[in-house]
Automatic annotation (TrEMBL):
Keywords: FAD, Flavoprotein, Oxidoreductase. It comes from Baekduia soli. This is DNA alkylation response protein. GO terms for molecular function: acyl-CoA dehydrogenase activity. Residues 279-429 form the Acyl-CoA dehydrogenase/oxidase C-terminal domain. Residues 183-267 form the Acyl-CoA oxidase/dehydrogenase middle domain. Gene3D superfamilies: 2.40.110.20, 6.10.250.600, Butyryl-CoA Dehydrogenase, subunit A, domain 3 (1.20.140.10). Residues 20-174 form the Adaptive response protein AidB N-terminal domain. Belongs to the acyl-CoA dehydrogenase family.
Amino acid sequence: MLDEQLRSGDSHPQVREVLNQSVPLEPINTYEAWIGLQEGTQREGGGWGAGPLRDLGALAGSAEAREHSFRAERNAPVLAPYDRFGHRVDAVESDPSWHWLLRQGVEHGIHSLPWTDPGPGAHVVRAGMYMLWHNVNTGVMCPISMNYSAVPALRAAAPDLAAEWEPRLVSRDFGAYSQIGVVMTERQGGSDVRTNTTTAVPAGDGTYELWGHKWFCSHPTCEHFLVLARTPGGLSCFLVERGPGMEFQRLKDKLGTRALASSEVEYRGARARMVGEEGRGIPVIIAMINFTRLECLLGGTASIRRGVLEAVHHCRRREAFGTPLADLPLMRNVLADLQLESEAATVAALRVARAYDDDEPAFRRFATAVMKFGVCKRAVDHAGEALECLGGNGYVEDSGLPQHFRDSGLPSIWDGSGNVVALDVLRAMETDPEALPAFLAECELGAGADRRLDAHLARVRETTGALLGGDDTGRAQRLAEAQFTARRTVEDLALALQGSLLVRHAPAPVADAFCATRLGGEGGRSYGTLPAGADASAILARAVPA
């Protein structure tokens, strides 16, 4: 009898009792939980958007949204090149949860708000919406971003095509909504699109036929695409509608954003219309990339925020040595440092978003590139540290942290990896006489508030001045040296803007800890190295409502 009881477990009910585990994060209103986003949208002219942001935050923090994201990631899209009769169809089948995620983004206008409802703060409010939905699923933001960024590029380069397609690009009716993608990268080229070999041959009726192979297409379910191809006049941009002559070869097996279909595509006489002037394809795409780089900055910021949310929530509800993890001194240091990174990213992202509402072209383009580099480079380490806060629980897929970690590197790679962006910043410093001064003028608004920021600003002025100074003698050597140290230069610029914004707008404990650790050399190389005097309690009070 005793043996039977032991085998059944009836005499040891504690065997099946769950102890010392956290509870689900959802439901949570992710807008109401994000103090920095609330303050930032109000400060940068988007206060009128509090209602829509709150509504989206409730949906983004629902158990339903989380489950749809998990399901879409588990059930990756599948390419069906042919139908059962052998006809070429190039169908991409995605899980219904993918379509649910995309529908919510479209119906909330994340892809179109500044174009359908232009006005003060429209880009700021839209930035907040983008970050809230990015925290649900990273991959679904790709088609949303493509539509958002294609509209201004088409308006500038091809008003006739914009008039034809824009109503569908910006529609909030999911049935009428049309997706646009971008196809640039080739096997031999990567970021150097000047080596592209895809050709465009005049068809005699004002259209062209495209021939070539593209290594990366974002993303193959779109109805039409912007494509770079060569003509006798040089590299040009074309609008291609999905159909005959555009054949998808395979879907990419990616590290992250697995719910998002990405592919290789071969053009075999696909019909296309030129966008803009012949030979001016790169400027057309650059006009679009300026906006998609803003998306990368917003995505990196959202990733950092998500890590804080998950880590703080877990550590407040799990104990070690009889005490909640979040109350242990060393863990408090780690969590406060993670939150500090989120504060700095959020304040900078929303300031840059305001530059898209205001008439600040010099600051806008320069700051977008600088902060894309600065924030996105921090996102991967941040995601790894947030995962570690959950320990083994964070290493299993059910927690969502592995997916978060895999996705965290995308904003840094998308539309210009670190090296490409750093070199773009150097080029802007040299070719646009207004870019660096406009950026530094914004940073200087914080001068006098903190001695460490003042010292950092002085170093930045000295460094950038040395890069730009001098005559043609030794120019090649100076350029090589500038490129060798470009990442450090751009990182220092990013920290200067973040520090300036925090001393002006953040609570004193946040600004002081940032200046001490990021500018003053009092922090270490990993998260959780705040100095002894840092007010972790005040910083963490802004992380997640208790």
